[in-house]
Each structure stands twice: as C-alpha cells, then as structure tokens.
Amino acid sequence: MKRASLLVLLLGIYVPLFGQSLHVTVLNALTDEPVPYVLISEPSHQNAAHTRALGTAQLPVRPDTIFVSAPGYLPTEIATNGRDSVLVKLEEKPLVVQEIGFTGRKRPQVVRTGTRHKRSQGRLTLCDSPDAFQFALFIPTPEKQRGILHKVFFYLEKEGKPRTPVRIRIYQNNDGKPGADLLDESVVITPKRWKRWKEVSMGKYNIPLPVNGFFVAMDWIYSSESVYQQTMRFKGGKTETSRCVGAVPGLTTEEDQCLTWVRDNGGAWMPWVCRWQGGTNSYNAMIRAEWLLYR
C-alpha cells in the first residue's frame, strides 16, 4: 500500500514505464464481430488493458505471450512472435444448463444479505494503480437453502468518475477465495447516479444459490474517459497529485473480519488488507446480494 488514511484508501501498485506497445484486436470466432471489454494481460500481470467498443486495445508493453479472457469466452494464450499487432479470435464457452432442483410451487421469499449500512465509513480510490482491478466480497449462504440469485448492489461515492463503466462478476467459492465464473456473460453497467446504492438485476441469468457461499465482484473497465487527477494534501502543506481511475466504491466497517479479496491485471486473487495504520476497524467492500428462496 502506498498511502492510506481513515476515510480514503489509495491503492498504489507498480506502474511500468511505456516503451514498445502491442496493438490487439479481438473478434468473436463465430461471427467475426468485435468483442468489447476483453482483458489483455501478460505473464507477469504487471500490465493489462481492456478492449474498447471496436474490440481493440493497446498494451503498453510488447511481451512474447499474452493472455486473453472475457466472461462467456474460452481464455486464450497467444504468442506474439515479436509483432506489434495481433488479431485474436475468441471462441464462446459451451452453453451449460444448470439444474435448478426445485419446483417453486410456493411464492419465493426474498433474502438480502451482505452490507447492512446505508452509508459508507470509507472509500476505495484507485490511484497509481493497474488499469485492470477487481475486488470481491464473500457472501455466505445458509445451509440447505435453495434459491436463485436475484440482485446485487454496490455503493458508489460521488468522487472519482462514477459514470464510467464497471463490470459485475459472480464467482464460485473455491476454498475461501474467488474461483470459477458463475456469470458467464459480460454484464457492464454505467452508473447514472452516485453516493447511493446501485442495483443490478441478476434474475435472467438463472444462477442457482451456491451451497457454500459465493463472491460478488466489481471489475473496473479502463478507458481514457475514466482517468482523472487527484491531489492529496498532507500535514505541513505538502501536496501530491496522482493519476486515478474510474468509480469510487464505498467501504464499510460493520464486519470484524476481512471478507474482501482483490486482484489486478487478471493475476492471482489476494486477501484484502482490510486494517491499516494500526487501526482496529476492518474495511470491506460495500456489496449486497439478494436471492429468491424457494421452500
């Protein structure tokens, strides 16, 4: 962590110097249509980029190999062979019909869990950070409950660029950390209001309630419109300006334990360091989930 304060957490991670870059174009292998919001990363996961609306991205380095991934598509590893541009055709994942396992004869009960607070006790600001960042909150599920994921909710602050797109991700619980995608579709939202909860409907994706809990994640989508400058003022009059990206989600201290996981540039998931500067509060992502419980 580079800088931290009680109300604002600035995530600082190594940012490489720009040299030779790689231009990547991603198309759907079946339709030859461009695929937006695809993650392009290199083996060290220190550099990454997302494709834009026309399926193109500019990686700030030119590695020997790139990894290409997006919800609903098979991940692909491509050798660049020293080229300055690469065309990638992604194959869609086979459609898997999940067994629901109940008839739903009775009217379902709405169950909501996750963050209970209406307002934040902190906020997460991505400054001097990688362009592809995710954070995920673990949502436990009671035993023997059968249901369908109905909605998820994120709290967004007014700071930053709240109108820039973010992607919603739902992951399996893999031994306490995020695992495989449960949402095999790219669900990208552009919030129109801020300093409030953003509701995202999940009902049409027919995701059965996992018996061992699951993770709800927010995936920053980088674009030139999402970049802004933020100036921090310190004691003694010192100021420091940082390059920051995207929306600013809220943090809550209502849980005693760390339930949030993070990863950058498509790398490994790491537990969120939710306490800092010797404090006793645990800061977690402000995320809620709602499902329809069938009995």
Task: Write up this protein.
- With 295 residues, this protein is mainly β.
- The protein has 2 domains: 22-90, Immunoglobulin-like (Sandwich); 97-294, Jelly Rolls (Sandwich), CATH 2.60.120.
- It is 0% helix and 47% strand.
- It has strands at residues 3-4, 8-11, 22-28, 39-41, 48-50, 56-59, 65-69, 76-79, 85-90, 109-114, 122-127, 133-139, 146-160, 166-174, 177-181, 187-189, 196-201, 214-220, 227-233, 239-245, 247-252, 260-264, 270-271, 284-285, 287-294.
- The strands form 4 sheets. Strands 1, 2, 10, 11, 13, 17, 19, 20, 21, 24 and 25 form an 11-stranded mixed sheet that branches. Strands 12, 14, 15, 16, 18, 22 and 23 form a 7-stranded antiparallel sheet that branches. It has a 4-stranded antiparallel sheet with strand order 5-4-7-8, with no helix packed on it.
- β4 (39-41) and β5 form a beta hairpin.
- The termini are far apart.
- The model is unreliable at 1-18 (pLDDT under 50).
